[in-house]
């Protein structure tokens, strides 16, 4: 899915949710992706691991009723990695993107602490940069898309009434992720966020 289409869908959901939301949260963070290493690849998957590297992320949620709501996230590898083409010694640069849309529950334990749990669906979009550069209007990459299931959670610690830090963990279950060594990947990281509304 192209980033423009993803942005439009999320913007529409945000506008619809904002009118009824009791609480809105937005966050930006960093983490890393972990996946099965190349030495553990099965016969169904290539030896290449999708893991490693710094992974920025953005997320937003709208809590609509009784601490339940909707959530959207986007994360991507900050730098390109090298993909080893199977049965050759050649490599091409690649960069994975993960996006997901979730149901989320954020119970308020205290004024300063709120855990969060989410589950939903999304996609893995991997760009393989098959050409070094090209002219204006030219696309120098090929894209591989896979459907995924997602579960995740975090612990919000409010530094002020509205500003929070959130250590977090996510599991992606990727359908037919044959370009890489595993059908799943995990993301661990931390975010800084801001709450508007009912906290």
Arithmetic mean of pLDDT: 86
Helix tally?
Answer: 1
Helix content: under 10%
- Topology, number of strands: 9
Question: Spatial order of the strands in the main sheet?
Answer: 1-2-3-5-6-7-8-9
Instruction: Indicate the low-confidence ranges by residue numbers.
Output: none
By secondary-structure content and strand pairing, the structural class works out as mainly beta
Strand content: over 45%
Question: What letter string, H or E per element, gives the SSE order?
Answer: HEEEEEEEEE
Radius of gyration: 18 Å
Per CATH, the architecture is Beta Barrel
Any overview of this molecule?
Helices cover 8% and strands 56% of the residues. An eight-stranded antiparallel β-barrel has the order 1-2-3-5-6-7-8-9. The model has no long low-confidence stretch (mean pLDDT 86). It has a single domain (3-197), classed as Porin (Beta Barrel). By secondary structure, the chain is mainly beta. The protein is elongated and about 55 Å long. The protein starts with a helix and ends with a strand. The chain has one helix spanning 3-18, and strands at residues 23-35, 54-65, 68-76, 81-84, 91-105, 113-128, 142-158, 163-174, 184-197. It contains one helix and nine strands, in the order αβββββββββ.
